[in-house]
Specification:
The complex is a heterotrimer of chains A (425), B (170) and C (871). Helix content of chain A is 43%, strand content 13%. In chain A, the strands form 3 sheets. Chain A has a 5-stranded mixed β-sheet, covered by helices on one side. Chain A has a 4-stranded parallel β-sheet with strand order 3-2-1-4, sandwiched between helices. In chain A, strands 7-10 form a two-stranded antiparallel ribbon. The two termini of chain A are 37 Å apart. Chain A has 3 domains: 211 residues, 3-Layer(aba) Sandwich (Rossmann fold), CATH 3.40.50; 84 residues, Roll (Ubiquitin-like (UB roll)); 90 residues, de novo design (two linked rop proteins) (Up-down Bundle). In chain A, helix 15 runs antiparallel to helix 16 and helix 16 packs antiparallel against helix 17. Chain A is of the alpha/beta class and 425 residues long. The relative contact order of chain A is 0.12. Chain A contains 17 helices and 11 strands. Chain B has a 4-stranded mixed β-sheet, with helices on one face. In chain B, helix 1 crosses helix 3, helix 2 runs antiparallel to helix 3 and helix 3 packs across helix 4. Chain C is an alpha/beta fold and 871 residues long. Helices cover 28% and strands 18% of the residues of chain C. Chain C has a 7-stranded mixed β-sheet with strand order 15-14-27-26-25-16-17, sandwiched between helices. A 6-stranded mixed barrel of chain C has the order 30-34-31-33-32-35. In chain C, strands 2-1-5-3-4 form a 5-stranded mixed β-sheet, sandwiched between helices. In chain C, strand 23 and strand 24 form a beta hairpin. The longest helix of chain C is centred in the middle third of the chain and has 19 residues. The chains are: A alpha/beta (425), B alpha+beta (170), C alpha/beta (871). Chains in contact: A-B, A-C, B-C. At the A-B interface, strand 3, strand 5, strand 11 and helix 14 of A face helix 2, helix 4, helix 5 and helix 6 of B.
Amino acid sequence: MKIVFKNIDKPEQHQIENYIKSGGYKALPQALKNYTPDQVIDIVKKSGLRGRGGAGFPAGVKWGFVPKSTAKPKYLCVNADESEPGTFKDREIMEKDPHLMIEGAIISSYAISAHTSFIYIRGEFTLAARRIEQALKEAYSKTFLGKNILNSGYDLEMYLFRGAGAYICGEETALLDSLEGKRGLARVKPPFPAIEGLYRCPTVVNNVETLSNVPDIILKGGEWFASIGTPKSTGTKIFSLSGHVNKPGNYELTMGTPLRHLIYDLGGGIKGGRKFKAAFPGGPSVPLLIEKHLDTPLDFESLQQAGSMLGSGAVIVMDETTCMVEAARILVWFFRHESCGKCTPCREGTMWLHQVLDRIEDGQGRTEDIDLLLRISDNIGGKTICALGDAAIVPVQSTIQYFREEYEYHVKNKKCLTRTQAPFN
Amino acid sequence: MQTPISPNIHKFVLSESSQQTILQEKTKYPHPRTAILPSLHITYRELGYLSPEALRDVAFLLDFSYTEVSEVASFYTMFPKKNMGKYFIQVCTNISCYLCGANGLLEYLQKKLGIKAGEVTPDGMFSLGTVECLGSCGTPPVIQINNEDFSENLTRQKLDQIIEELKKKK
Amino acid sequence: MINLTVDGKSVQVERGKTVLDACRKLGLYIPTFCWDDRLESVGACRICLVEIEKMPKLQVACITPAADGMVVYTQSPQASLGRQSIMELMLANHPLDCPTCDKGGECDLQDVAFLTRKDASPMSEPRRRFLTGPDSTFDEKQIGPLIYLTMNRCIVCFKCVRFTSEVACEGDLGAFERGGHTQIASGIGEAVKNEFSGNIIEICPVGALTSKPFRYQIRTWLANKTASVCNFCADGCNLTLWTAKNKIHRATSRRNDQVDQGWICDKGRFGVDLVNHPQRITSPLLKRSGQKIEISWDEAYEYASKSFKTIKERQGGTAFAALGSAHCSNEDNYVLQKFFRTVIGTNHIDHRVFYKNPLPGSDSSKFQTSYSMTNSIQDIEKTELIFVLGCDLTVEHPILGLRVKKAVNKLGAILVVANNRGTKIGKFASQEIIYKFGSEVSFLNALANQLVEKGMVRSEKVKIQPDYENWLKNYSLEKTAKQCGINALEIESLAKLLGESKSCLVLIGRDVITHPYNQDVVEAVLNLGYLTGLFGKKFSGINLLWEYCNSQGALDMGLLPDRLPGLIPLSDKGYRAKLEQAWNAKIPDQPGYTLKQILEAIHRGEVKCLYVLQEDLINNYPDREFVKTALTQLELLVVQTILPGELTQMAHLVLPGLSYAEKNGTYTSVERRVQKTQAAFKPLGDAKPDWQILSELSLWMQGPFVHYSSQEITDEIAALVPGYSGMQYDKLTFSGDRPSLNGQPDISEFQLKRTEYRPVAASDKYPLVLLTGNLVYHSGTLSSWSSNLRAVAQEAYCQVSLADSDKLEIQDGDWLEVESPQGRLKLKAKITDRLREGTIFIPLNFPETPVNSLMDKNLLVDLVRVSKLVD
């Protein structure tokens, strides 16, 4: 079942003529002519579409929070700041089928009565940025954007805005601060962006993949989308498979597909026929799954039951040669590097965690360090402004939970229990 | 604001064309402050890094203080703040690339160019840096040169080829 | 209203308030670092964690909105553990500098650590250090002329950066990098230079930002604290002076929400060191054979009283003149004019040393139309339209400037700024008008014409005589736009705003006060006020802003040749009789001379004795040459002051008065708020309170009065001076009181005046108009004695317009010679696009480059020529 990736492998799909040929820009006129903004919101609510960026919040419900009677302008922001390690699904959509995202964004802007929208794309995605710029030009030329879209009386300006190397700007409030021309610091919620967002006006921030589902939902109906997947995780999800697998890449799967199928059937199994050790099912912000979890269905609820989360759907597979302490160190360094620095626990805590992990990995660990890591994680968890703080402690807590013996081995023997440096040939 | 501006008021390092583009950005968005980040992109494209003088130009054109512009610039790690030579090579060392040989790639590059991450070769041609996940985890390991399109699925051979071609480009 | 429960107690708060507001209303203490009620909450430090029922995570009280039925626990085990976690992380990298950190004793981190019993962290990694290695913690950087930043101590609460951008609306402090490497700094090569930088020292919860002058002076708990009021500009900010052993170590804000909201400018904060300058005059000095020798008070009084008697017997009381001070207290000034009116018998009394043609005092019984501030400072935040005319507001009245910035940025007010040069406040305006020098009357008449022509005069009570209306037609748009050198649209749009705004506050400043036809300008503004119906309307009014800390008080105490205390005209027989009875002496009924006339009279030999109270006549009078030659002709020059200078050198007798920090007294601020100061320590050396010197002189002259305390004088003022009734020193609160204004003005008697525009022309030989003004760090001679302030404002300069710099081929930084018929000065050029062609600007008050040496008291406008110095 392919929704977002339906046309992804068609040659030159990013050009508007091909997009239209493959059925594109049919949902937009339907939405503008047949539905009021509120009706569009209802359809999306019925579809059960949940955010595909990591939070999993129902999109239609989020749109419904935007106040109807306000003099302030409203904004839609497309979150294309894909920076969660292991995630590269939005990149493929933007490079190969940008009009799908654009059409989805236009319909969503219409649903919340926004007349200005931004696509916030991470600065490193240069090819995608060029493709989107070109696609926007094409869309304007065919009156899919601009004043009086398709003679419907609805105006929408859409701007491409390039980020410049900050993972935190994928967090919706930090994204808004960055769009406002400031340092990308996360904001406390409440007030929520739907009430006070960009320039203190009502704003909705949605992920690329989320919006790319909207055209088909409009064309085929909310019930159709809800009939796919599981009752609480409707539709499909693109999983970015990476790590020690033979066939890494993006795979669009119906919600509820088991993890084993993704890794072994589609992903070609572990490299070199080695043994599976652990995997992050949704990027390193969510807890690990180990071998006993291989049959877990990939959907919001099942993963939660298994002690993890769906997150961004980045499945990072680690085999038996991986040192989990080193993996934790690399990931904690990532969070330390990307912390915005606004709130005390994340700013001080990620630095401290990394310093301790460094020592353990370099053979200078002490027995009390393992409990110290857990203590620092407890100090941070639940007390930060945004989810980065909660994410930063996950690699630590999760690796200690399942692989404590590796930590103890490090401390006692001053070296890794298992590590083979991945070759570069 | 009309260009050219008297050197008694401000001396520019940015070209006239970049100045014009930045002034266009200033009126494009609902609030002029939003133009700061796009202006940094424009500056980077012309100069290859964000020098204090270039940031002063941006501040002057957008009517903010130099401190306000440079504090924003300092937050974002994509732009080097000093000259990183002709080709700034950034190696992804995050988890998925690490699992697929990024450390080996970095060591190989360091040996080949004779510099460590953060340094520039004596002839000013190459510099190295490590960078976080580039979103290329399906095609690891990966480098990004001068913040342009990625070079993915790297092998020693491919890397040698790339370096050779860059050396020839001059 | 919202009802919630905190720690078992019910509390009610308005919608929109936070849980922290509810806790504070109950008097509960919740630790905070990054929260300040004057700044927008950011929830960054996370220390104010509380437990709220039905919410799984601990919540941050300062930003969680209070909701109906909420049940909050601030001291639960969960909440306490949460705070300890945060403290543990905050102390992870914080250095143990307490033994040598200036903040000790007033440090929030110390207090909260004590409260949470969390004094250390199990952190044993190398601590983060910004400049030096892990062994040293004392690495500091000077980020401004008077401020040190010790980044290692910073807990990144962002209050300094938030204050700088939200309140001061400046951009010279920022947060650089991100994550654990976040560093507070200015851009490379920049420094923190805005005039409110000192406030970041006060709001910093730790010792990361410390004051350079205060470094190692004294531990905070060993100093004495005295409530006082700032002695520089007229805003009247409330201070606390920290003293020990007769020395002022520092000044901090003594928050008064009606005046300063807890902010003080750097001049007031750092300028306090002048009080303890080593060259303070602390004993009477007599000139003998060209030398100054120290004498006793008895000798001084004997000399003075003998000399007074000799001159009086020979020529009468009108051979004497006295200058009071806009820096001295009401008590000092009141006694000065009483002494000279009753004991000496002269009305040659003035205090306006800065002005060539000072505005006359006006009748205080018609407050709303008098030349004064008629609104309160808080009205600025409530009005719809703010019109700043001829005022460099952020320099002359920094605190009013803050209020205007807040009104514009946060409260939706519209700001229009009009002046003959670009000013900093103009950058906040939706409309900044820079008109030709001297064209104000044309500009204002044009506005009046627009209002009448377009039927925007709103009140039925306004009576416009037909001949006024006809006369006004002369000020048509095109004609006046040309006269003012501006666009007709600018006049039109401002007139529209004036006509349509529900409330409008007009602020008039120094550039109007020193205007060659200043009275005409004020009359034209009053006309506008009448036509727009501003008088008496809520949050509206015309406000002439006097400059110095007691300028208003000096006027009110009758330091004028033709006015008695309360600004009652000398000709008012009834009041004069009342005073004569209360003073038990006669008051001469002939009006006296203004300062200019006094100086001319000295030249003629008519005035033989001049008594100067704490004003630097030579450096401040706009004709240096004339003043100096006049003073040499005096038979007796008595100077009562605190610091030396050319004036005390020329004086025959020098009497040591006191600074504001050493005496009790009252001062009347720009908004007519009477505030009291207290002596922070005993007078230095043999110096005496100024009122006491005059009182003792009265005794020596067998005068009709003597005073034993300043309270006594305050009480007498309250009894006798209109507008000050009820102002008793003991009853005066420490936040001051504003004397009541006489209700609604009676505008039925207002007459629209036909003030004609009179242009001022430059000459061929001297083609440039010299504009002058103060700097925010340097507004008079007093500030030049503060080494702290001199560290910031180091030298004068000459601002040249871009157009003139092209004509004269001057580059930024060139040395120039500025020449007038009176004199010449050498100054460095600063090219700016904020000046009109044909004008230059030089800041006053730098003793090395006395601008008043270029001025001529007889000329309405000072004209100069500028040439580049080549060598």
